Amino acid sequence: MNETLKLIHNRRSVRAYSPKPVTRADKDAILAAAFRAPTAGNLMLYSIIEVEDQSLKDRLAVSCDHQPFIARAPYVLLFLADLQRWWDYFIKCGAPGRAEASGLPNRRPQTGDLMLACCDALISAQTAVIAAESLGIGSCYIGDILEQYETHREMFDLPPYTLPVTLLCFGYPTAAAAKRKLTSRFPGESIVHKDRYRPLDAAAMDHCFGDLENTFRSTARAVQYENAGQEIYCRKFAAGFSMELNRSVGKMLENWK
Amino acid sequence: MNETLKLIHNRRSVRAYSPKPVTRADKDAILAAAFRAPTAGNLMLYSIIEVEDQSLKDRLAVSCDHQPFIARAPYVLLFLADLQRWWDYFIKCGAPGRAEASGLPNRRPQTGDLMLACCDALISAQTAVIAAESLGIGSCYIGDILEQYETHREMFDLPPYTLPVTLLCFGYPTAAAAKRKLTSRFPGESIVHKDRYRPLDAAAMDHCFGDLENTFRSTARAVQYENAGQEIYCRKFAAGFSMELNRSVGKMLENWK
């Protein structure tokens, strides 16, 4: 296995950081790699906010479903899907009017543009993660940045055609964090389909969720729920943070209609 | 610069493939790396369709805005944001009813879940891209998979709680493709913001789009349009494929309301 594959296979999310600082040179190396990520039509439909102000990190540690380690992360990057940069440029260029004069549509950014921009932002984010990993710097994605849109919009002065799609915390891992057990994954057969999507039949479902069920049965929660599906639905899917995430994203999407 | 950073900095999209086959071992190495990508709550909210049937590749080469090289790609992966696997499991487990009995919401997948699933799918896709690159295998993202939803839904039997978020073509590059000039990027200062989003003022806009304007002025299109913004708006943003992409994504989102 080559070095790159090794680091992909050895990566774990790091939430406990050593005191070793992430230097400006480290940060620039991570960003330079992120910029080389492929981007649709080379339009770079994303922005990155470097969150260096401690008071902003402190607020994120609360707004992102109460995860105090965010406040302690040496380096924090907020990835935005961003059509605003292009939209401002189009306006400056008189582009919508020029299109209309040619009989083309004069339109504003919509959900399709947003999806392309989310692709760009996330492809760049994962490139940053792998670049950091190659430098010995750990990372953790914070999906909860999709919650509390109004709060994050105010904190970061987000204009309407941006969407905070993911947050990344970076730092050198503590010795314990570096050795933490790798999380398991579903069997590959449950993730990969041949030519057409094949819903899981009963046997395939047992194969996919079997380990999860076995683990669940050894926990205290097995008294409360009949199976792991009920537990995860109640503890995650129907939980407050998940309801908030869906409300918040619904609000974000209103800008793109 | 370490090996991983080198390959990130040397990557270009590859659309011309050498006759060297992508072996089953190569494919499995790419997939195994993709599975190790970080995933929200370890839920793996994505699926991958291996497109091996030539007739499906031929149809994609048409449906994805007429890009014949897709039909010639030795290995094609369709990445789906996927809540269907979990939803089917929740139903089998009687989870929504169990939640209701506890006074919790009984809800179906929504746009927030979809955004998290898109994150998972794209983080996995870019991990696959970098893994492939480390094996000498080139790749190209096809954002146009977001178009023609109804066609792709039928071609791949996509159930409602999946969304085809990106398509990847893989193959060993031809000698020419491997040496193709690296595409330029916007200056880092135009992409990275410090602590708060800062819209580009006139000077920052010139800095960001200056190279693009200079290149535009040397093309035949400079006769037709006043500036690069007008050209890109008319040729991309207001073009048929872009209108179709936004229509198609609007249709996809109807499943998640």
From TrEMBL, chains A, B:
The keyword NADP applies. It holds the Pfam family Nitroreductase. InterPro entries: Flavin_OxRdtase_Frp, Nitroreductase, Nitroreductase-like. Gene3D superfamilies: NADH Oxidase. GO terms for molecular function: oxidoreductase activity. The keyword NADP applies. Residues 8-172 form the Nitroreductase domain. Keywords: Flavoprotein, FMN, NADP, Oxidoreductase. Belongs to the flavin oxidoreductase frp family. This is Nitroreductase.
